[in-house]
Amino acid sequence: xxxxxxxxxxxxxxxxxxxxxxxxxxxxxxxxxxxxxxxxxxxxxxxxxxxxxxxxxxxxxxxxxxxxxxxxxxxxxxxxxxxxxxxxxxxxxxxxxxxxxxxxxxxxxxxxxxxxxxxxxxxxxxxxxxxxxxxxxxx
Length: 139
Hints:
12% of the residues lie in helices and 43% in strands. By secondary structure, it is mainly beta. A hairpin with a 4-residue loop joins strand 2 and strand 3 (51-57).
């Protein structure tokens, strides 16, 4: 009995401290642009814990990042998208919505679309209104 309690305590401590993160694979998010060839798209993505900075995307150059979703299924990355005379926001990875380990997005003028390798465009989303960003208001 004592041995099984010790094992349970050890496993729980691994999960809580994140040491068991290697059990869960990394997720890759890639962002592509379908804006005109001459248009440069500036993307800035963040999570609660990470600020990934500004990145430039063109019709020929994508940008992506990898991370480990947290054990509690609350991982959220939100991004701003800017190009001449336009500024939009979107939750590029929401663990409650996205079940992909390789999430490929293409940005169109009217919103981002998630791609599926076998079917092409899987689902398109409208840009977020400022009051709809993330799970908590941005400060």
